[in-house]
Amino acid sequence: xxxxxMSQMELREVNATLQAAPATNYTQFEILxxxxxxxxxxxxxAPIAVTVRGSTGYYCAGMNKxxxxxxxxxxxxxxxxxxxxxxVVVEGDASQYAGATGHGGLLxxxxxxxxxxxxxxxxxxxxVHGNIGHMSAFMAQKGNLVVxxxxxxxxxxxxxxxxxxxxxxxxxxxxxxxxxxxxPEHIALLSELLEKAGADAKPEEFRRYGSARKLYNFNIDxxxxx
Amino acid sequence: xxxxxGLFLKKEDLRPKLGDMLTDMLITMSDRGPDxxxxxxxxxxxxxxxxxxxxDTPESAFDGLDxxxxxxxxxxxxxxxxxxxxxxxxxxxxxxxxxxxxxxKGLRVMGLGEAMEIYKEIGLPKDVAARFGxxxxxxxxxxxxxxxxxxxxxxxxGAHPFSTAEDQCLVHNGSLSNHNTMRRxxxxxxxxxxxxxxxxxxxxxxxxxxxxxxxLGEALDGTLADLDGFFTFVMGTKTGFGVVRxxxxxxxxxxxxxxxxxxFGSEYRAFADLPGIETARIWEPEPATVYFWEx
Lengths: 226, 295
What we know:
- The complex is a heterodimer of chains A (226) and B (295).
- Chain A is mostly beta strands and 226 residues long.
- Chain A is 10% helix and 23% strand.
- In chain A, helix 1 links the parallel strand 1 (2-5) and strand 2.
- Chain B is α+β, with helices and mostly antiparallel strands and 295 residues long.
- Chain B contains eight helices and 16 strands.
- Chain B has helices at residues 18-28, 58-61, 65-73, 95-104, 125-132, 179-188, 198-211, 216-226; strands spanning 3-9, 36-42, 49-54, 78-82, 85-90, 108-113, 116-122, 141-147, 162-165, 168-176, 229-236, 240-245, 254-257, 261-265, 281-283, 291-294.
- In chain B, helix 6 packs parallel to helix 7 (198-211) and helix 7 packs across helix 8.
- The longest helix of chain B is centred in the last third of the chain and has 14 residues, at 198-211.
- Chain B starts with a strand and ends with a strand.
- The A-B interface holds A 35-37, 55, 57-58, 74, 76-77, 93, 95-96, 114-115, 133-134 and B 249, 252, 254, 267-272, 282-284, 286-287.
């Protein structure tokens, strides 16, 4: 495992080393002393494994493709923002808009996530072991958000086709978000996601939420729903 | 954007290190706000009331100021000059006369209180901290601000913290949308802001509520009902330290607590040098929720 010590190296050097990884013999990296730095391990596009020892600031593992990023501490706003593929695992908590606009891959947060988790998600799978904050999955279009704890207010406001699974309580549902039936295919999907995320929970304990599809096209009779 | 920091010590033995710890936190937040920086520090109680004043021409303005003021007030006045600021300790009961006399001399009053001193200037946070020797300051708690100006000009008076009552001060990240309406209401109540800055309106609002009998927690709770816009507020009083975020909570905030201190920062990296941060309880304050500590 190649160490990249941020007390000795500039952020650009660290990220350039990771982004150049396919040309080297190293496939495993360890980032030391991140001390809350922004944009750690962003823009990766190779099947490498990166462990970040400590906590990061904004946009950790943003735009990730193929790589597996593991953060041992907590992360600031925008972790795994616009992720395309690969895996990002956070042992601690995540701040606002975790996994925002993500197109693919798996984001696992073992602690709590804050507000706007999975906002405008476009295909990413997000599994949060703790709670999530308000306005999560706002305008979510595709993918799955799994929450083992509770969800804050206005969950799934103006949601499209993303699926939301919550085990705990939901403070309130946002516009056009409704509870939906858990059919066998949802149980199967949830089992697979929970297993991938190393989550100790039974799929039967969850409730499913999604779009009522009233807001897809503007209809004057639904003006009050907005 | 703006960066805000705060530190409330629970144990006496850290008091000599307060300025050092807060300065590191402040400098780390420079790229959130490089326009100006300020700090309010709660040190030892003085024998009288401390008045922090500022002048753009400190050499001439502060020359013999203590002697002149003691003659006007009929009692001893001590003065500590630090760069563009001077902290005057005036005899009890002479507050209004002192403010009149200082006003006539064209000096800007940054704040007054038995424990609080305020230092703020335009410029990079590291330069502001060095000019005032913030690292060497001791105290029980303090708050700081690095400003990226949005609602008013980059001037010394537009820098945070804002103090609008004795020993009370406020730093803010965000922007208020109803500050002109509130300015009129507060002016009618006798709490008129002196600058065009929206944060001073919030400070006046909180001071007005405390003057009406609210405690710090109740006054901060009132901001949720009466102030419109985006805000994360961190407030200091003589014995307390409070935090509140608006219900949307767009502006970032993170808190850390150990047996030794409670710390606030706009970002986690402001905490990176604090002792024991590895094992601290760290959390993000919930929207529309007041947090406060009193000693």
